[in-house]
């Protein structure tokens, strides 16, 4: 009985923590993702050309 409730609590805590971290570092993450996508696009364009 106790184990499933503990697991659910841990999952909720984990999701809450990840959401908090994501919202806190969202701008930097978005900038990094944009830079990575731009690099990937440039590589793909070079490869296809």
TrEMBL record:
Protein origin, superkingdom: Bacteria
Protein name, as recorded: Uncharacterized protein
UniProt source species: Lactonifactor longoviformis DSM 17459
């Amino acid at each position: 009985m106790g184990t499933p409730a503990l697991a659910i609590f841990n999952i909720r805590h984990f999701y809450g923590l990840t959401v908090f971290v994501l919202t806190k570092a969202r701008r930097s993450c978005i900038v990094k993702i944009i830079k990575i996508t731009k690099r990937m696009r440039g590589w793909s364009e070079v490869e296809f050309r």
